[in-house]
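quick one before i forget lol
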Amino acid sequence: MDEHVVKELIEIVGKENVSTAVSDKITHSYDATQEKHLPDVVVYAGTTEEVSQVVKLANQWKVPVLPRGAGSGFTGGSLPIRGGIVLVLTKMDRIIDIDTENLIAEVEPGVVTAELQRQVEKLGLFYPPDPASKEFCTLGGNVAECAGGPRCVKYGVTKDYILGLEVVTPTGDIIRTGGRTLKNVVGYDLTKLFVGSEGTLGIATRIILKLLPKPAAKKTMLVQFETIDGAAKSVSAIVGAKIIPTTLEFMDAATINCIRGVSSIPLPETCRAILIIEVDGDAQVLDQQVEQILVIIKPYGILDTKIAETEAESEEIWQVRRIVSPSLRKVNPDKFNEDIVVPRSKVPDMIRALEKISTAYGVPIVNFGHAGDGNIHVNVMVDLKEEGMPVKIEKVMDEVFGAAIKLRGSISGEHGIGTSKAKYMNMELDIATISYMQRIKAALDPNNILNPGKIFLEDYAKPPLEVSIT
């Protein structure tokens, strides 16, 4: 990078907020994919105006800019694959306003998700989106990826709570979309365009969020099933009975095998699936709702049910889910974590397809996730030191994504596309649709400086692979 760029960056944000040190570049070179790409310089912005000036400078010198929060993404969205400026937004971490009369919060992008939740809950309010990384991921990253979480089956995902944004465009302009009202149909809905765009169309520097009243109480239960079909049919039956739990989390047999003996709740060999069901709302009706759920799912091969009566018992149930990820390394040292989505009723079909893929390629596949919305976290566990494993993994992923599409699902529910899923986009979207998205990118970012190389590949001519295992 030209030394003049670094000098001008120092003039914009101050010497203490610009670093070309190798240690800082390494720190900002990777995300949860563990793929590494070194930037040329790391810049810590403190204001919207600084972000704007950095982006304008990048356009002047045709230097890539990579907006970054906590770097916890799973698909390479914040990787500086073409070098350039990593623009870190974690210093912009103010909760500007919590409006208890209008149920709105206004925040900067560096606010940690769980911290906002704690602050609004002190005031009797509630911000539902709860990605697994909520204790360290930032709201700016949540907006960029349209983050979800277990509670989205009832409450929806990040895009359902974004009322307005302040955005620095790829050319450095500062614009504002939406506002502080629930209804707003003035012009195009640019807010929704920016949410989920993975930092390729703009950088959110202020976020206006919708809040809800905090539920009065919650009730948690863990149900063990003889089969994954029984668990999936239970999910459909619960929703069919007009009950929408806060969460409907599932674990398949491969997952249970990883945590059996580690979990404080006994899991017998006959247990082939687990549902964690949580309901919230008026305390007076929760017991009745739980009883109704138990009646609904009774015909579907239940082995055992644990209902939490205290917060400690609820925490014990959720700990069963939390120990899954650390326990996966017992299977193999390397993990490829994907999040596919299928219609709720097709979860058993997808699990069976994954079992066949696992057998055919000789690689363990461990599955868990959000049964209420059909979002399956597929964990392909391998040892990359084995000869030919990278090629095998590519074939496995082709099969996994192809099977999801065949069941009328999607290749990504909440992790985004980034770099790791770009080559699979044409499995789900036709070339005309992809081209339309690329034209939007080109119109807003004529110099292609904002997070280049993400979402889209240069060539979409390769047809989708045939999916032979379903």
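fyi The chain has four domains: 3-88, 95-213, 217-325, 331-470.
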